[in-house]
Every structure is written in structure tokens, then in C-alpha cells.
Amino acid sequence: MNNVPDNKDFTMTTSGREGIRGWLNPTRYGWERVSYWLQRLTGLGLLIYFIGHVYETSSLTNGINAWNSMLQLTQTLGGHLFLLFVIGASTFHTVNGIRLIFTESGKGLGKPGRPDYPYHAASLNYKQKSGIWVAILLACIAMLYGGMVLFGQGG
Amino acid sequence: MGEENKKVVLKVFRTNYNKNESSHYDEFEVPVNRWTTVLDALLHVKSYSDTSVGIRYSCRMASCGSCGMKINGRPSLACYTKISELNKDVIVCEPLSNFPRIRDLVTDFSQFFDHHKKIEPFIHNDLVPLDIKDKDDLVEFEQSPKEVDDYLQFSYCIKCGLCYSACPTVATDPSFPGPQALSQTYRYIADNRDNDKSTRFNILDERHGIWRCHFAGSCSAVCPKGVDPALGIQLLKGHMMGFSKNDKKVANLRAKNKE
Q1: What ipTM was estimated for this complex?
Q2: All CATH 1.10.1060.10 domain ranges in chain B, comma separated
Q3: Taking a C-beta distance cutoff of 8 angstroms, is the pair B185, B233 a contact?
Q4: Per the CB < 8 Å rule, is A36 touching B216?
């Protein structure tokens, strides 16, 4: 009895691809996956900021009043929180980006060798992982300072 | 003795796409010991509860790579995952993500193997004729232990597909070769018997090629054989950009000087 169809007959299969859902739940695979997720998220956020920033500065062409009313938007609570996100996102994206320039060039990942049980991946070492922690820490410090300036006296 | 009476609930993803069945989960109570693996538990279900559960397995010792599946949301080999190590009373078994599903826990590996074949996973060497008629045409290659170490860990790949399932790039781009094929490319490039880097570089240096990897490291986190595909891929990128020290070039120059 041979009921096994060949590959072409698997018409009822679904692709099984996770799609963008696969980017979510970053905690399943460790710090590198968290960094991947944050790098994408901050990158998208900064792109949105960049578009908004170009729109904001282009209001200058409509005169000083238009510029001033646009500037008022950043003086609201929502505007301050958005700027705080931009400070944190740009700091994390820059520092983690520098880490990625090194790791994606094969630097700081260790050398291939004979794997022994229980296998530990050389590339997931603490040297490059610490770059993620430093990026998160610096982003937090930058946001803290930014928050003090924005919400402090005269903010 | 009390340990032998412990039971866990095995929640198994069920469907049959060839019969248009909608997907659902079936729950089975399975007795477990300290050494019971998820595969043992699934085989217990097949023997005593429901013979129709579809699984693929063979060696039961993490050598064949057949029993890959998502166990509690993480790609793992069922024969290599002890239930006691999961520390859960409910074990969820699902088919590997990023693979077309066939039935229950069985997935279709055709596309995965196509990516593997595309990178030409064999040694290219001009000195060796492809069809050897006379045994005197056979060429012997000298390799030092250091030169073997450069690629050995990548040759331990069992093609289980766990890295392919965990990769976030594969999740959105079917044309991306995936961690397995990319790390195997490095395996041949790092091998000093191979002397055709440019062919493989041309295969990978394209829109959906190696540059789509952004070092999420998930492939290396799930690899059951210590292959560390992420390391191979990043070293390969380094070679392609000319950053890495080219050990092979140095070895070839030394060999030429010897002559």
C-alpha cells in the first residue's frame, strides 16, 4: 500500500510561515532576538519621526505663525512623551547598530571549534551580548536625562 | 517510586490538510519518568491512546533530525527533549513554523532542501576531475587539525530544520536561504580543499540572500548539535566584505611556497 503523495500533491498544506508574528514574542530565543526586535521597532519609530520632522520643519515655508503653532505640539504631554521615545530609540538604535556592525562582520563572535556537549554557541557569547545591555542602559540614561529636561523646571 | 506515577498532559496539534480538516488540539494524559522524552510520550500516545497521531521520527538519538517540532513554543527535537527538563505539567506539541504543514506534526521539507541544494553543498576543486576513469587521477589533500577545526562544527548539521523554523527572516521571506543553507556555505568556503568561493558568493550575494540575516541568533539558540549557524553566517559575511582574515588564502600560499 502506497498512499504517500509526491511533493506536488501536497496542495492542501498551508505555508506554516509565522510572518510578522514571528518577530513578536522576542523572549523565546534570548537577548539577541530581543535586540533584533528592538532594533526593528526603534528603526520604524525613527522613520516615522523623520517623516514627521520633515513635515514639521517644512511648515516654516508657511510663515512664522505656522511654525509656532507646529512647535506648540511638542510642548504638550503627548509631544514630550514622543520626544522621550525618540531620545531612547535613537540612542539604542545607534549603540546597538555599532554592535551589529562588528558582529555582522564576524568580529567578537569567537572562533569555530569542535563542539562538545552540552553545546554552547560561541556566537551567543557575553562579549557581544553586553553590547545589547550597554545599548539598553545608555537609552535609559538618555531618556532619564531627557525626561529631566523636558518635564523639569521650564520644560 | 512516586516519580513513576507522575502524569503530564500532552497537547498535540491535529489536522490533515489533504482531507480539509480544521486544526485543533487533542489532549492526552501520559505517564512519565525522569528520563521520558517528548518522543517517548508521543509514541506512548500512539500505542495506547490514538494511533492516528502523525509524527515523523527515526533514530531516537538526535542524529537523524526527523522529529523536529515546536515543543512549548520553541523548535526542538522530540527525542532530545526530556519532559522533566521542561518543568511543565502541560506539554504543547506543534508542527515546526515556516514549513508547509502536511498532517499533525509532520511538515514538508522540500523547500528547505531546495535551499540547501542551491548552495551546491559539495567540494568544488579544479584539480579533481568530475569523472575519474583512472585511479591515478585521484588527488589526495593534506589537512592539518587546525584546518579541519575551521569547518568541522558546521559539518555536524543534521538538517533537522530547527534553525529554519526559529529564524525571523525566514518567517517573512520564503526566498531567503535560511540559516542552515548559509552556514553550510561557510562550511565549504572554510574548507581548504574547496577552491571556488566566487560561485557560492554569487549565489548568496543577491536581494534575498545573505544580507537579509540581521543576527537575531535564534538559529544558534535552538541548534541541537552545536553547529552555531549564526557564527558561520557572520563569518561568511566578514569574508564577503573582506574583513575576516582569510586563513585559506594563507594556507594556499604556504602550500605554493612548499612546492
Answers
A1: 0.85
A2: 110-258
A3: no
A4: yes
B101 part of contact set with chain A, CB < 8 Å: yes
| A29-109+119-151: CATH architecture | Up-down Bundle (1.20)
Domain with CATH 3.10.20.30 in chain B: 2-107
Instruction: Please count the helices (runs of H) and the strands (runs of E) in chain A.
Output: 4, 0
Are B27 and B8 spatial neighbours (Cβ–Cβ below 8 Å)? no
Chain A residues whose CB is inside 8 A of the B239 CB are 106
Would you call B172 and A19 a contact, using CB atoms and an 8 Å cutoff?
yes
Residue B93 one-letter amino acid = C
Neighbouring residues of B47: CB distance < 8 A, sequence distance ≥ 6? none
Residues of A in contact with B224 (CB under 8 A): 119
Q: Which residues sit opposite B26 in a β-bridge? A: B12
Domain boundaries, chain A: 29-109+119-151
Chain A to chain B, count of Cβ pairs less than 8 Å apart? 168
A33 and chain B in contact, CB less than 8 A: yes
Say which CATH architecture domain B2-107 belongs to: Roll (3.10)
Residue of B nearest to A117 (CA): B226
Q: Residues of A with CB below 8 A from B215's CB?
A: 32, 36, 100, 103-104
Class of domain B110-258: mainly alpha
Taking only the tens of pLDDT, chain B with its 259 residues reads: 445 679 999 999 998 877 777 889 999 999 999 999 999 999 999 999 999 999 999 999 999 999 999 999 999 999 999 999 999 999 999 999 999 999 999 999 999 999 999 999 999 888 777 777 787 777 778 899 999 999 999 999 999 999 999 999 999 999 999 999 999 999 999 999 998 888 899 999 999 999 999 999 999 999 999 999 999 999 999 999 887 666 556 556 666 666 6
Residue partners of A43: CB distance under 8 A and separation at least 6: A93
- Partners of residue B14 on adjacent β-strands: B24
Helices and strands of chain B, counted as H and E runs: 10, 7
d(CA A130, CA A32): 10
- Contact indicator for B155, B63 with CB cutoff of 8 Å: no
Q: Which residues in chain A have Cβ-Cβ distances shorter than 8 Å to B235? A: 106, 109, 112
